Amino acid sequence: MHGNEVSFNSDLWLRAESFIESFSGDTIANVSMVKASPVVLCWRLQASGFKVNVDAAVDVSRCVSSVGIVARNDLGNLLWAAAKIFRGCVNVEVAEALAILEGLQLTNSDSRCPVLVEFDALNVLNLCKGLSISRNEVDNVVQDIKDILDNRDNFEVQFAPRYYNKAAHEVAKWALSGYRYVDSFDVHNYVFWSSFFPSWLCTLIKDDVVFAFV
Questions:
Q1: Looking at domain 50-212, does it have CATH number 3.30.420.10?
Q2: What Gene3D superfamilies does the record tag this protein with (predicted)?
C-alpha cells in the first residue's frame, strides 16, 4: 500500500461471495450455541476449618508498607481481621512475605482444624514451597514461614488471584491511607478487629459471601 491504490481481484471476490452464500439459513441454525457460564470473581468458601486471606501494599514515597489480614470460617462469616504497618519496608516481595507470616502467627493457636492461608503473591509461594531460590532480604521471612508450616500439619498456604483476595487487599490499602491517623493504630503500628468491624469491611465480606453461594 504505502500511498498506492488498493485493487481487488474480481474473480477472487466472486468466489468469496459464493462461499459465504453456500451457508444457508438451515446450516447456520444447526450450529449449536454454547452458553458461557458466568465467571464468579470472588472469594471461595473453605470446605472445613477456616481461611485466612492476606495481602500487602507498599508506599515507596513514604517508605512504608502495610499488610491486611482477614479470617473467615467455612460459612463465610468474618472471624477477625487485622492490619499492620512496617516502616522502612518498600520491597514488595518482603511485604508480601510479611503479610503471610503475620497471618500465620495470628492463626497459630492450639486449634487442630484445617487452616488455609491464601494470598496473591505466586513468587512468594514458590519460595515458601522451595520451588525457587532467593538470596535477598526476603529469605529470613520465608524461613520463619517455613518453620511455622513445618510445625503445624493443619496449616496450608495457597495462591489466590487478586479478585479472590479483595478483602485482604482493601484492608492493606486502608492501613496505608489510615497511617497518618495516629489513633488508628496502637504503639506497634497494629490494629485488630474481632467483635466490631468497620462498615466498609462488612460490606466487602457480605458481597463475597453472596457470590460464594452462587
A1: yes
A2: Ribonuclease H-like superfamily/Ribonuclease H
Q: Among the ranges 17-21, 79-83, 194-198, which has the highest mean pLDDT value?
A: 79-83
Residue labelled with grid coordinates 460459612: 75
CA-closest candidate to residue 200, choices 171, 177, 179: 171
What is the CB neighbour count within 10 angstroms for residue 88?
Answer: 8
- Helices 138-151 and 92-107, packing angle to 10 deg: 20
Residues 62-86: what's their mean pLDDT?
A: 92
The amino acid present at 51, given as its one-letter code, is K
Nearest-Å Rg of the Cα atoms of the chain is: 25
* Rounded CA separation 164/55 (Å): 11
- The rounded distance, in Å, linking the Cα atoms of 160 and 119 is 5
**DSSP of the chain:** -TTSPP---HHHHHHHHHHHHTS-HHHHHTSPPPPPPPP--S----SSSEEEEEEEEEEGGGTEEEEEEEEEETT--EEEEEEEEEET---HHHHHHHHHHHHHHHH-SS--S-EEEEES-HHHHHHHTTSS---STHHHHHHHHHHHHHH-TTEEEEE--GGGSHHHHHHHHHHHHTTT-GGGS-TTSEEEESSS--HHHHHHHHHHHHHHT-
**pLDDT tens per residue across span 3-38:** 444 343 445 444 544 444 444 444 433 433 333 333
- Residue 99: Cβ within 10 Å count: 31
